[in-house]
Write a structure and sequence with these properties.
Elements: H1 3-9, H2 17-29, H3 31-50, H4 55-72, H5 80-112, H6 120-135, H7 138-149, H8 153-177, H9 182-189, H10 194-228, H11 236-245, H12 249-277, H13 297-306, H14 309-321, H15 331-338, H16 349-371, H17 376-392, H18 402-434, H19 445-457, H20 460-471, H21 475-499, H22 504-511, H23 516-550, H24 558-567, H25 571-599
Helix pairs in contact: 3-18, 4-20, 5-6, 5-8, 5-10, 5-16, 6-8, 7-8, 7-17, 8-10, 9-10, 10-11, 10-12, 11-12, 12-19, 13-14, 18-19, 18-21, 18-23, 18-24, 19-21, 20-21, 21-23, 22-23, 23-25, 24-25
């Protein structure tokens, strides 16, 4: 028997210091994340039961749904000129807000990237700023912006632009941290400055991710503009809010259908742009670098490694000086070797296409700025009033006491938990059917993909309004609206995660005679589970903020208290409500980050 076996078998003998140090920690660490997730799942199930979301509730609301359909149909569209004007104003706001977020996010992300900012305190401050921008809901920023800049598109652009820094800045900083350092070190050794390193070594690596993030945020801002219309921001959202306040459901749902169409078109356009701009040549179609006739591979590698003709001449001179046989090179070939490489790339079809896309993008942004009717005078006047307006929100107050606010906050949390759980239950089968590699009916995968796109295009605020009419005021409508929204988001991400799995384990298990169901639950689902867990936790974080916003239209929770405080000019109470929401979202984000780090 070995010494290690004897030490393990003797009960009275003390274990090694290393084992004594690792044993208790491993026994405590491993179950804690699992217990936390089980507690979270149990809380979500309890929220569904406590809110009385069941089949009987849906059946009771069926008659209201039929009555609402009768009051909604036929849809009443405004005149074509007014419709084009409203759609153009909404698109202009979304484009300008996205542009503002990009201008703000790029410097913030450069400071937040740890590999580009050696000062960890500066990097941490930039990261904290990004988290703060993401934690404060855009409707709260819009309420403050309306107070500063007045009604109209300017307030919406500033609110959505500042809020977008939370997502765009985080994704940009993550992309910058994942870049390779070798190109930067090579340029630095050649004497390049830091801006030259960013332009030549870092930007080419992160440009695809930057473009994809910007397009995704544009789609999000287009939907957010509908919600901001309920606090005085212009465009289609403001007209929808006015229509529902007049109980003119035909006009309100007609405008909502226009928003849905715009969201679907934006989704398709964004996908087309991403596939076109971010397309890379297939490895088999890449051409090898041409080597002039008579030039050996050693000489070519030496020349390209130095980047100038010096390395080539040195390599050739060394080879000749060591007694190597000289190559038979013509005068034209020697001249071609000695001449410096062209500094301007040729005008290929790909370069022309990129310039055309850049010109079109610049023209669209200029048209969006003009369409939003941004006024420098209005901006300067509003900035001059900013200290006065901010002073109205301080100090935080709670005239009715904190008990009522905490109860409303708990209703918001329950609404988010119930909506996330219901959305996850619905999204799992939809995501499986949308993934062509695991779907039992691969021909139906495009149909389910289209379903997720259509669901994501419906603004949650419109869903909440319809469900409030059907199920009545309260958190039930908010939870069902969040469930539908989560279905579109989680269904897409589940399908994407399944399609990205390596087919090797699944094929190996299928070769042993396992059925499709056995292959899925034994080989596919365990591998996709960590990614799915991260998606669900992220959606819960989003739903916490969305549940607060849906209270604006009668879905209950702290959003209802927030809107009432803003209407009666209780700005100190608005600040208290914002701080409660901020603390809740930060705690949930810390829990989500810890759980994702533990499982992945």
């Amino acid at each position: 028997m070995s010494t290690r076996t004897e030490a393990r078998s003797l009960p009275g003998q003390a274990a090694s210091p290393h084992a004594a140090r690792l044993g208790p920690n491993r026994g405590v660490r491993l179950p804690l994340p699992h217990l936390s997730l089980l507690a979270l799942a149990g809380a979500a199930c309890w929220a569904v039961v406590d809110l009385r979301i069941n089949l009987a509730t849906l059946i009771d609301g069926f008659h209201n749904a039929v009555a609402f359909a009768g009051r909604m149909l036929p849809l009443d569209f405004p005149p074509a000129a007014d419709l084009v004007r409203l759609a153009g104003e909404t698109l202009s706001m979304a484009l300008c807000a996205t542009l503002l977020s990009l201008l703000l996010s790029i410097p913030v992300s450069l400071l937040a990237a740890r590999n580009l900012t050696p000062n960890r305190y500066l990097s941490g401050a930039a990261r904290s700023l990004i988290v703060l921008a993401r934690a404060v809901p855009d409707i709260i920023l819009a309420i403050a912006a309306v107070r500063v800049f007045g009604l109209g598109a300017t307030a919406g652009i500033i609110a959505m632009g500042l809020h977008s820094v939370g997502m765009v800045g985080k994704l940009y900083a993550d992309a910058l941290e994942e870049t390779h350092d070798a190109p930067r070190r090579a340029l630095r050794s050649a004497g390049a400055s830091f801006p030259q390193e960013l332009a030549s070594a870092v930007l080419p690596q992160v440009l695809p991710s930057f473009i994809a993030t910007a397009l995704h945020r544009l789609d999000v801002n287009l939907r957010s503009s509908v919600l901001l219309g309920f606090v005085g921001v212009g465009g289609l959202g403001y007209e929808i809010a006015q229509s529902f306040q007049r109980l003119d459901y035909r006009r309100g749902m007609a405008l909502a259908a226009v928003v849905l169409l715009l969201c679907l078109l934006m989704e398709l356009l964004s996908g087309t742009i991403r596939r076109t701009l971010l397309r890379t040549p297939h490895p088999r179609t890449r051409r090898k670098p041409e080597t002039p006739a008579g030039v050996t591979a050693t000489e070519a590698s030496a020349g390209t490694g130095a980047g100038t003709g010096t390395g080539l001449g040195a390599g050739a001179g060394a080879g000749l000086g060591s007694g190597a046989a000289p190559n038979k090179v013509s005068n034209n070939q020697m001249a071609r070797r000695a001449s410096p490489p062209p500094t301007t790339p040729p005008w290929t079809a790909a370069r022309l296409r990129r310039w055309a896309y850049g010109t079109i993008t610049a023209a669209v942004l200029i048209a969006a700025v003009r369409g939003a009717e941004l006024s420098p005078h209005q901006l300067l006047t509003g900035l001059g009033q900013l200290p006065t307006v901010l002073g109205q929100y301080l100090p935080p107050t709670a005239p009715g006491g904190m008990a009522g606010l905490l109860d409303a906050l708990w209703v918001t949390v329950k609404t988010a938990l119930a909506g996330t759980l219901l959305g996850m239950v619905l999204a799992l089968p939809v995501g499986v059917l949308a993934a062509h590699n695991v779907s039992p009916w691969p021909r139906l995968s495009p149909a389910f993909r289209t379903l997720t796109v259509a669901i994501r295009g419906i603004p949650e605020i419109v869903l909440a309004i319809v469900l409030v009419v059907i199920t009545g005021l309260g958190p039930v409508a908010g939870a069902l609206a969040l469930a539908v929204g989560s279905l579109g988001f989680l269904g897409k991400l589940t399908a994407d995660s399944l399609e990205e799995l390596h087919p090797g384990p699944s094929r190996a298990l299928a070769a042993t005679g396992a059925s499709r169901r056995q292959v899925f639950f034994a080989a596919d689902f365990p591998r996709v589970l960590p990614a799915l867990l991260g998606h669900v936790l992220y959606q819960l974080d989003v739903n916490i903020r969305s549940a607060a916003l849906l209270g604006v239209v009668g879905a209950g929770g702290i959003g209802f208290e927030l809107l009432n405080a803003a209407r009666v000019l209780e700005y100190g109470l608005v600040t208290t409500t914002v701080l409660l929401l901020l603390a809740t979202t930060l705690l949930l984000e810390a829990f989500s980050s810890w759980t994702r780090h533990t499982f992945t």
